[in-house]
Specification:
about 90 residues; mainly alpha; 4 helices
Length: about 90
Protein backbone atom coordinates (compact mmCIF):
# COMPACT_ATOMS: atom_id res chain seq x y z
CA UNK A 1 0.00 0.00 0.00
CA UNK A 2 2.95 2.35 0.44
CA UNK A 3 3.89 2.51 -3.24
CA UNK A 4 4.46 6.28 -3.16
CA UNK A 5 7.13 6.22 -0.45
CA UNK A 6 9.99 5.52 -2.86
CA UNK A 7 8.92 8.06 -5.51
CA UNK A 8 11.23 10.88 -6.36
CA UNK A 9 10.19 14.39 -5.40
CA UNK A 10 9.02 16.18 -8.53
CA UNK A 11 9.72 19.89 -8.57
CA UNK A 12 7.64 22.50 -10.37
CA UNK A 13 10.60 23.14 -12.68
CA UNK A 14 10.68 19.48 -13.71
CA UNK A 15 6.94 19.55 -14.38
CA UNK A 16 7.32 22.64 -16.58
CA UNK A 17 10.13 20.97 -18.54
CA UNK A 18 8.11 17.77 -18.85
CA UNK A 19 5.07 19.69 -20.13
CA UNK A 20 7.20 21.45 -22.75
CA UNK A 21 8.76 18.15 -23.81
CA UNK A 22 5.35 16.49 -24.14
CA UNK A 23 3.85 19.44 -26.03
CA UNK A 24 6.68 19.39 -28.59
CA UNK A 25 6.10 15.76 -29.60
CA UNK A 26 4.80 15.10 -33.11
CA UNK A 27 2.46 12.22 -33.97
CA UNK A 28 4.33 8.97 -34.52
CA UNK A 29 4.30 7.59 -38.03
CA UNK A 30 2.51 4.26 -37.89
CA UNK A 31 4.21 1.37 -39.59
CA UNK A 32 0.98 -0.45 -40.53
CA UNK A 33 -2.07 1.25 -41.99
CA UNK A 34 -5.42 -0.07 -43.16
CA UNK A 35 -6.06 -0.97 -46.78
CA UNK A 36 -8.49 1.97 -46.95
CA UNK A 37 -5.83 4.41 -45.75
CA UNK A 38 -3.24 2.90 -48.10
CA UNK A 39 -5.53 3.32 -51.11
CA UNK A 40 -6.34 6.87 -49.98
CA UNK A 41 -2.62 7.70 -50.04
CA UNK A 42 -2.07 6.03 -53.44
CA UNK A 43 -5.38 7.19 -54.95
CA UNK A 44 -4.12 9.82 -57.40
CA UNK A 45 -1.44 7.47 -58.76
CA UNK A 46 -3.83 4.55 -59.18
CA UNK A 47 -6.40 6.81 -60.86
CA UNK A 48 -3.68 8.14 -63.18
CA UNK A 49 -2.55 4.64 -64.18
CA UNK A 50 -6.10 3.42 -64.77
CA UNK A 51 -7.05 6.50 -66.80
CA UNK A 52 -7.58 6.30 -70.57
CA UNK A 53 -4.23 8.01 -71.09
CA UNK A 54 -2.23 5.28 -69.31
CA UNK A 55 -4.61 2.39 -69.88
CA UNK A 56 -3.64 0.06 -67.02
CA UNK A 57 -6.28 -2.22 -65.54
CA UNK A 58 -6.99 -2.65 -61.84
CA UNK A 59 -5.68 -6.21 -62.21
CA UNK A 60 -2.34 -4.85 -63.44
CA UNK A 61 -2.19 -2.34 -60.59
CA UNK A 62 -2.98 -5.17 -58.16
CA UNK A 63 -0.09 -7.20 -59.59
CA UNK A 64 2.30 -4.23 -59.28
CA UNK A 65 1.36 -3.79 -55.64
CA UNK A 66 1.61 -7.53 -54.99
CA UNK A 67 5.27 -7.29 -56.04
CA UNK A 68 5.75 -4.95 -53.06
CA UNK A 69 3.91 -7.23 -50.64
CA UNK A 70 0.65 -5.24 -50.79
CA UNK A 71 -1.94 -7.91 -51.44
CA UNK A 72 -5.10 -6.19 -52.61
CA UNK A 73 -7.32 -7.66 -55.30
CA UNK A 74 -8.34 -5.55 -58.26
CA UNK A 75 -11.96 -5.56 -57.04
CA UNK A 76 -10.89 -4.40 -53.55
CA UNK A 77 -8.87 -1.52 -55.03
CA UNK A 78 -11.80 -0.51 -57.22
CA UNK A 79 -14.22 -0.77 -54.28
CA UNK A 80 -12.03 1.34 -51.97
CA UNK A 81 -11.54 4.00 -54.64
CA UNK A 82 -15.32 4.13 -55.07
CA UNK A 83 -15.77 4.54 -51.32
CA UNK A 84 -13.24 7.39 -51.27
CA UNK A 85 -15.04 9.13 -54.12
CA UNK A 86 -18.36 8.80 -52.28
CA UNK A 87 -16.97 10.19 -49.03
CA UNK A 88 -15.25 13.12 -50.78
CA UNK A 89 -18.50 13.98 -52.61
CA UNK A 90 -20.34 14.22 -49.28
CA UNK A 91 -17.99 16.91 -47.97
Amino acid sequence: MSEHQNSEVITKGKIDKAINLLKEQKPKEREDISDREGIRKMRRYIEKLTSDKYGYTYEEVSEMLKGLGINLTASRIKYLLGELKKSSRRR
